[in-house]
Amino acid sequence: MLTGPLLRTAGVTKNYPGVVAVEDLTLEVPRGVVGLVGANGAGKTTLFRMMLGLSRPNQGTLEICGIDVAADPVGARGRIGYMPEHDCLPLDQSAADIVASFGELSGLRPRAARQRASDMLDLVGLDEARFRPVGGFSTGMRQRTKLAQALVADPELVLLDEPTAGLDPSGRDEMLTLVARLGTFDISVLLATHLLDDVQRVCDHVVMLDGGHLVIAGSTESLLEGSGRLAVDVGTDRAPLLALLAQRALVAIESAGLVEVQIEGDADVDAVRDAVAELGLPLHRMSTRLTSLDDVFLAEARPT
């Protein structure tokens, strides 16, 4: 069982002409399946490029699996498999040839690379199609071929850049199932995406970026269990309830004819119920809604 953090950054900043892509990024990410989330321009691709040694930070340090990327870029790169977002496969070659070629580039002997390619294509569900030209593959099959080549060198960490992009619901489910399985092979995953539902479904840990800044990082479970929302329908006289809840340090807003209260457990639910009873208001409905990662991001992201 591999130990130690998957990724550690300290004060990492990356500037391009007129743009600060990543600014003063300090975090430590544990091993496992990790979601790197943020909108386009949040800094996800820049972070990947620095991890791969394709770009150097202007300041700060970055370690992958305990290796300082600046001090030993080849050693760090040797621990990583990378699945790019864009379609980049040679369409006239078979999946077996493509994945085996990447295996040889990673240092495997030709026969070992062929065997490893066969194993990885079997893992991603392309065993029967491995000798067909990739040009005849569906989008989902091409994505799985890219995943196989990222795995062929048996990396400690796989970087997946928008792996469900362009997939239909069935293909998306298949890809996310594969991503979740990688953790059972002691392979860590850093999944870059703007789809928070994907992260919530398969990731153990979440790193949220916005405008090159760290928004929040933590285990998926802890981010979701920290709060939820309680929707309370007391008719049209909502102002007294909002005022009383504010006095009792509960965050509440009026939304779509309801009072929405941020809660952190059963005690907060009881406090809201008691406030309604104390005011003598009619209680037509009271229902809870768990916080989603979308809620966490919107609550924590810096105002634009």
What is the secondary structure topology, with strand pairs?
Layout: E1 7-16, E2 19-29, E3 33-37, H1 44-51, E4 59-64, E5 67-68, H2 73-77, E6 80-83, H3 95-105, H4 110-123, H5 139-151, E7 157-161, H6 169-182, E8 188-193, H7 196-202, E9 205-210, E10 213-219, H8 220-225, E11 228-233, H9 239-247, E12 252-255, E13 258-263, H10 266-279, E14 285-290, H11 293-300
Parallel strand pairs: 3-8, 3-9, 6-7, 7-8
Antiparallel strand pairs: 1-2, 1-4, 4-5, 9-10, 11-13, 11-14, 12-13
What are the main properties of this structure?
single chain; 304 residues; alpha/beta; Rossmann fold; Alpha-Beta Plaits; 6-stranded mixed beta sheet; 4-stranded antiparallel beta sheet; 36% helix
Kindly describe this structure.
- With 304 residues, the chain is of the alpha/beta class.
- It has two domains: 213 residues, 3-Layer(aba) Sandwich (Rossmann fold); 75 residues, Alpha-Beta Plaits.
- It is 36% helix and 28% strand.
- The chain has eleven helices and 14 strands.
- The strands form three sheets. The protein has a six-stranded mixed beta sheet, with helices on both faces. It has a four-stranded antiparallel beta sheet with strand order 2-1-4-5. A four-stranded antiparallel beta sheet has the order 12-13-11-14, with helices on one face.
